What we know:
Radius of gyration: 40 Å
CATH class of the largest domain: Mainly Alpha
CATH superfamily of the largest domain: Outer membrane efflux proteins (OEP)
CATH architecture of the largest domain: Up-down Bundle
Number of strands: 4
Strand content: 5-15%
Strand order of the largest sheet: 1-2-3-4
Low-confidence stretches: 1-20, 249-261
Shape: elongated
Order of helices and strands: HHHEEHHHEEHHH
Mean pLDDT: 84
Helix content: 55-70%
Structural class: alpha+beta
Amino acid sequence: MKTWRGCVVVCLSIWAPAAGAQTPLALADAVKLALDNYPAVRTALANVEVSAAGADLARTVYLPRADLLWQMNRATRNNVSGLVLPQPVVAGISGGSGDPVWSSATGLLVNWEPFDFGVRGANVASADAALRRASASAEVTELQVATVAAEAFLNVVTTEQTLRTAEAAVERARVFHEVVSARVDAGLRPGVDAARARAELAVAETQRIIAEQNVQVARVILAQYTGREPADIVVSPGRLLVLPPGDAPPAASPTPTLTAPRPAAHPLATEQNAVIEESRARLRLLERSYMPRFNVLFNTYARGTGALPNQSGLAGLRPSVQNWAVGLNVIFPLLDRPALEAREQAERQRQVAETARYDRVLEDLDAQMGRAQAVLDGARRAAGNTPFELDAARATEQQATARYQSGLANIIEVADAQRLLTKAEIDDVIAKLNVWRGLLLVSAAEGDIEPFLTRAQP
């Protein structure tokens, strides 16, 4: 029995760390978590639903309106002649004291607008334009959140690789410090070499501490978008540590001329165009508002009263007199024209402003594409150069160390060679990641990062 329990304890101790371990987060997974969890995306999608409900509400104006009434009351029945202006306080009965009686009324009023000179259609078009603008705004938000989440993921990978390089630099500095200390103790080197080696080790440790800090900051930023805790962020770089497939670094040359078309299909441009269309729809609605309103009405009702001489008690609770009516009324907002003209003028000027803003959006997107292409071109050329830098730095470090051990070089030469190697290792990793970052910026400038995510999949 004790042996069986011991086996269970051992199995649980082996399984527990694995159960608590977090699944490594891939780039596409991080973007999906951001789109699912980030509040800005949920807000934008909720605004789309609000606008969709508004469009459905606008379409209901084509339906007739039917109001059903039932009322009962007990009141005095005295009445006096005279005028009571429309107001919400005095009821339809007025007079002195009298015996209270029961009264009742029920009725149905159907009101339908058979034609409206395009007012209802313009109102529906305005609601549909608002829906299109909200949808475009949601696409902009999704693109921005996805781009920022992808960039945050790249930053985590970059800082982690920098930390690994810093740890390797600490290990090199530690080994070299031990070698120097042994030679100093043996009297083969002056004591100042041991102090310098210890100083280089301290510098490497400080760089590692800064790298660890940068990793934590990058994880906090990524956690902000993915909804995970920073301590639970474990990323899987996938293909990000090598150059993109089929992406050969170009030879050093002047930046090529950019001939990309104006990004009119970008979500930002689509959103701004939807704002212009919404303004046009509101203007069409205002232009059709100074029209007569025709209403076909059907009314049927019945009333009961206990005020008749031959009735008493509960008489009047049952409606006993019926009537009906069918009619047409016409309402014309005679004095609304000045106000409508002012609103139309304001809406026209708003269109001018939004159209100018649309042109500015296109110019900004052109500039964004130009910057992204420049970043990508520079990153590709740098990635083509860093392997030579890294190979030369490794050879230099090996030769400097060998020369120092042979007594042909001083410690400063070795320290400089180790720093150069650390820098070359960091430059090589960052150069590859900067190519991916440039591809992300180009995809974001084009308005769709899905091709970038597909290319980065392992």
